[in-house]
Here is the input.
Amino acid sequence: MRLFVNLQARGQAPDWVMSPEGADVVLQGPGQAGTPPWAEEVITVADAGLRPPPGQAWLSSPLQYDDLQATLQAAASALHMTARTGARRVPPPAGAGFVSTVTDGAPGGAPSGFASTLSEARTLDTDAATNARQRLARLAELEQLQRELAARSRPAAALPAPPAPAVERDTLPPQPAPPPTAEASPATLDPAQPLRLVRWPSHDDLRRDPRHARLAGFLATRPLSCNELARLSGVEQAICHDLALALLAGGCVVAEARAPVAAPPPAATVTVLAASPAMAPRAVVNRGLIARLRQRFGLR
Amino acid sequence: MALELKIVFTGPPGAGKTTAIGAISDTAPVMTDVTNHDPALAKAQTTVGMDYGLVSLGGQEQVRLFGTPGQGRFDFMWRILVKDALGLVILIDNSRPDPVADLRGFVEALRPELADMACVVGVGRQAQHPQPSLDAFAEALADLGRVVPVLAVDVRQRDDVLMLLDVVLAQVQARLPDEPASPPAPPV
Here is the structure.
């Protein structure tokens, strides 16, 4: 399990690390009692034949990496959404460099099916480092909330980021180098900043302009900057920028690391198998075909 | 060279798959509807095989439109029809008892295929049945680790069906290799 979590952390956002306590997500063995009071999301790991009651998140054992990845992503989305409603604490968007934690058992002596993994995981957690990370995370949450509130009230205005509480930061123990994430606030969006859609936008965000749904459709596939979005869609850059600002303020997109983002290799070329034996064995979809389809359907 | 593409419409019984295909097909849809004997479905006929429509692009290019049967017992056909499709349209009937669960069922059943396929969810009868909201569907998808477009649709309106296809095509286009940058359209 620890191996899977570490693999999950590589290049992913948010970064997941193992922790014996204070985690966002608890992976709990079957029949394990005593869910820790600080647990916000609990995922039960159970044999496929012993599925927990409906409504409870679970993973089948033996653990599959893809399932764990999908479940952690879903948990991150759920945490972020509930935080936006103010029901629980706010994990900032992944682009802000927030670090989440995951544990595989309950502390405090609760019986655990993963005791050995727990002891290995403790190497990550000195008290000082944990406290420092928590304080940094809360500061980042506060700053992000302030920016979001400001952007909602004045979406087009250029708002400076609130000053960082330098004194408190200086007192914190040294932090490991953060992953290469990008800074983006709703007020100061770089048109070259790639944005990743983490949640489909609300109906209110989309109905402001009939082109917004299509633009969000592009973003649903891969991270794109405003510049790329305008180039791909042929829609004016100002409209792409307005949508990006609204999505950023609503927490529907997060800033991606500024590394060059190319189309994912498996999907770089869309191929379609022939539907009829009389046809070529494989046909390639290209931009010209998409343009002809759109023209045929009368789409502007 | 001849080129055939495939777009698949799926969703629970009564969601409007046959109607949606009929709204955009060049030809009258070929239907495999039979008399409905399921009292849970308020319709006289229901699809047991598949629906089929066609959109010609001229020359030897055409788009085949397939509608799957909605009943869960035909889920093996969903996967067969979706294989190698250009895109998938999941139509949901918001007047059903638990439309969010309907959506979850289709997403779970087609999970491997959806990993690399353009997909959009169209929620019908939203005007008469506003709950669950579109946001609730988006949240359910997020819970499944998916970011899939969710739009309200009236499948009797051709423009609404085309809007779904527009979003599917946007996703297909975004998957294509990057081309050399050209200047974006100038602001009006």
Notes: The longest strand of chain A covers residues 41-47.
